[in-house]
Fold:
Amino acid sequence: MRGKVVIVGCGWLGQQLGVSLARVGYQLYGSRQSEQCLLLLPVEITPMLLQLPQLFLSNAQQQIWQDAWVICALPPSAKTRSEEDYLLLLRNVAQLANQAGVRGLIHCSSTGVYQGLAGEVSEKSVLADDAKSRFLRLAEQELQQVNPCVTLRLAGLIGPGRHPARFCSGRVLQGAELPVNMVHAADIAAFIIQLLQQQPATDCFNLCSPEHPTKQQFYTAATQSQGLAAPQFASGSEVARVVSAAYSQSVPGFCYRFSSPVHALPYC
Structure:
């Protein structure tokens, strides 16, 4: 057994990560807010009821969290909570992690933090004075109260059960020639597996397929692969932004399975 991993917020992404980590030998625990949601977890993931915010972990939860890696996969986009409530949840996760004495924390953040920037963006880019960017940066800072904390800025998510054709078939999309920034769940899991083998320090990585087809190329290919109606395209004011994956590619042992998101479509 390689060690313990606790996934806080074991929704679609958390389940994809948990199954992959369990298959290479990690002992996986996944938290949800209700007993009903816990019943939906894959058999590879041991369920854990965690009703955030909560002041303390139970004795059993404390034993699980102690010396475990915690992956926070709570999405910022839940319709049922405000930005303030989301930041409170993350602050609570950091407090619980520090109380328990975890080995470290991995935060599944978003490349939405680069909102308002144009051209190529990297982990060293100066962020724009944009409301979404400020909110996501605050979210990252809440979890960086845990040491070490590795922030993963994830591009648009694709993978099993999350085929991009579902979101675009028959719709009108703006910016046919804009580049897309996407990442498959399998590449996120593979990156985390390599990261955990190296006892990482606090750091920040973009995770995004290194190649960036245009919106028209990608979404047309996506709908064709599913036999669905292709989207239509209209001109728009959105700026072109390319998320650099260079720093993540420097991690020893890691290589993107899907260099282009088009190559990932058969695996969604």
Observations:
- The mean pLDDT is 96.
- The first strand starts at residue 3 and ends at 8.
- Residues 83-100 form the longest helix (18 residues).
